[in-house]
Amino acid sequence: MTRPAPAPAHTEYTGLDERTARRRFVAVSFLFWLPAGLTAAPMVLLFTERGLALAAVAAAFAAHSLTAAALELPTGGLSDVIGRRTVLAGAGILNVCALALIGLGTAGWVLALGMALMGAGRALSSGPAEAWYVDTVHARSGPDADLRTGLARGGAASSAALALGMLLGGALPWLLGLGPDLGARVRAYTSDLVLPLSVPVLLGVAVETVFVLYALTALPEPPRPRATLRGVLRGVPAAIGAGLRLGARDVLIRRILMTAGAAGTALAALELLTPGRAAAITGASETGAVLFAGLAAAGFVCSALGSQIAPLVARFAGGSERAVLASLAASATGLLVLAATVSSTGAASLTLAAAGYALVYLGLGAAGPSENDLLHRRVDTSGRATALSVQSLSLQLVGAAGGLVTGVLPAGPLPWLLGATVLLAGALLWARRAAGPAAHLSGRPEPATGDGIG
């Protein structure tokens, strides 16, 4: 039996030019995260309107988080074995099914299944788009090509999509409910399954369909050996093991993973504490929800701005490592401001709190591209998506643990101080420059420079 010819070496593939690759990476990032923004604002209210108690809503969200965490590493390895484009399309298809179930489902188990499928889609999507962009740029311009600009624009596009989706997802149900009979008209023209709160979710189905088609047609990849079931079953665990070993033996990668966990704790504190604080400011849960949607959208805008200025921050700071230190320190300062103003209701205190909230997201947005620039210079294409999945897993698991601790702390500044302290500890990890050789997933050591970006 004749064996298939081996795929050409990665260096023989030139692919798209850098500008086109950057533009397509921005587009695919925007299209993927827009549905997440559309569904974030109405999700809890939709579940409660379907008759779920708060405990059942929490269980449905837990199904999402646990599924994403359980599949994070296997799906990252899958992308490194069978290709980025296929995995991205699979993530989009899972999200189409998930959003359809969430938008139309009425039983609790159907909604929980939709959330679990969404978690699987989240796990599949964690890394392949960014890995595709880095692979394409390296194939065209070599391993020393500038990555920060493209990564920054991709991060900005993701944040902008979340902000736009959050605003649309919060506004559409409100607009549909303005007239006394408008909600009834929605049901009359559709069915009883479609509520005003379902409309943003079903709009997300349409956007996810566009995402799948775009991923399949606009993201060319270098040829890979034909994947077989046996090869996938053998290759995925190997990629996972290599990713875990990399985090264990490379000081710089270990710092990136610990920093991701610190950022996850800070984000968990914001997401858990801000809605209640918004309701306390406005005096009612309904208006507090509207204020929270506006704040969340503003936070994503600040994150997008932070991503955009990340290359500038790195130049002024003198390298990626110092840029991460400065950016995370700024975020921790924002959380400290929120802790200091938690008991105050005056105009000056509220203005300071808003500025602190914006600073948290601005700093996290600025830190991300520099962290990932360091990461991509430490790994090669055979394990790039796996490394990104390990990073995402660290953010989710440590963030979930931090959220649980935050939830049991007494009300007041203490929960905010916990997030600030953990994030400041993550920033201080970068006070000293990494030393020693880089440990690639491929096992080829590479000399490290003083900046740590090789």
Fold-level CATH name of the largest domain: Growth Hormone, Chain: A
How many beta-strand segments?
Answer: 2
Cα radius of gyration in angstroms: 22 Å
Strand order of the largest sheet: 1-2
Named CATH architecture of the largest domain: Up-down Bundle
Proportion in helices: over 70%
Count every helix, treating DSSP H or I runs of 4 or more residues as helices: 16
In short:
76% of the residues lie in helices and 1% in strands. It is mostly helical and 454 residues long.
Describe the structure.
Residues 1-11 and 435-454 have low confidence and may be disordered. α7 runs antiparallel to α12 (285-317) and α13 (320-340) packs antiparallel against α14. The protein has two domains: 16-221, MFS general substrate transporter like domains (Growth Hormone, Chain: A); 235-454, Growth Hormone, Chain: A (Up-down Bundle), CATH 1.20.1250. The longest helix is centred in the middle third of the chain and has 33 residues, at 285-317. The chain has a two-stranded antiparallel ribbon with strand order 1-2. β1 (438-439) and β2 (445-446) form a beta hairpin. The relative contact order is 0.14. The protein is globular. It is mainly alpha-helical. The protein is 76% helix and 1% strand. It has helices at residues 18-40, 43-49, 54-82, 84-104, 108-125, 128-141, 148-176, 182-189, 199-218, 229-249, 251-282, 285-317, 320-340, 347-376, 384-408, 413-428; strands at residues 438-439, 445-446.
How are the secondary structure elements laid out?
Blueprint: H1 18-40, H2 43-49, H3 54-82, H4 84-104, H5 108-125, H6 128-141, H7 148-176, H8 182-189, H9 199-218, H10 229-249, H11 251-282, H12 285-317, H13 320-340, H14 347-376, H15 384-408, H16 413-428, E1 438-439, E2 445-446
Antiparallel strand pairs: 1-2
Helix pairs in contact: 1-6, 1-7, 1-9, 3-4, 3-5, 3-10, 3-15, 4-5, 4-6, 4-9, 7-12, 7-14, 10-11, 11-12, 11-14, 11-15, 11-16, 12-13, 12-14, 13-14, 13-16, 15-16
